[in-house]
Please model this.
Amino acid sequence: MLIGFPTVIIASVWLVFFLINEGQWDGYVQEKFLVSLPFIIGAVGLWFLIAYTFHSKMIQFAVHSRPLERKENMRVYNLVENLCMSQGMSMPKVFIIESDALNAFASGLNEKTYSVTLTRGIINKLNDAELEGVIAHELAHIKNKDVKLLVISVIFVGILAFVVQVAFRSVLYGGHRRSNNNKQDGRLVLIILLVSAIAYFLTILFRFGLSRKREYMADAAAAEMTRRPDALASALRKISGHSTVDDVRSDDVKGMFIENNPKEQGAALSGFTGLFATHPPIEKRIAFLEQV
Model:
């Protein structure tokens, strides 16, 4: 599934040259595409390498989390350890966000970086069975490789978002210079902006669709892991309406939480805008768990 992201980027480069050539597919398009391709792959590869290497630190910084020591909260460690032992998994790192909100997420790309992060609120306000259900949901994301999939998809979406921003600023602040000196450059920037915006739109739709599907799968896996779907459903009821962690600004990180509902932030989420939701409606997730 991840091959879709680099495919969109490479196809976008080809489309830019195709449109510059006024929609004619000839030797010019092929030559320009093949010459630029190594530079595009190199730039994307460098961006990807940096994000891949430092993603854990970036996420911790974005959510203001810190390691939760075993002696500080044996209850959480016992729940995580028991679930890991039952699934034959390695113990992930455990982090805490000092927030009264009720939320949690998993992250990481390999066993050295896998982690489960919980807010202070969710630790304090859920009973053992409910908290076990939440932790099982996050461990399911790790076990199913969802965390790796989502982190990589965020990296590629970030690349296209950067290109869109650069092209948009070029159009916004470079118009006077282009109109007088180089109309061809202005046309090129507009084509890049148009193509990159379409590619960005497609990748975020793909990413959000992927995220919603994975949430259902993690809920089902957590129910099977704990044999208590009712406990996870009860946890989601308590989380509903109380999931917003105020200090977290990044939409990419918010999409990793067990619940991310823009309604809590004042935005409508229905119909067409539902396509941009990272999570299914929590009511549907609860109804699903009640039928398991």
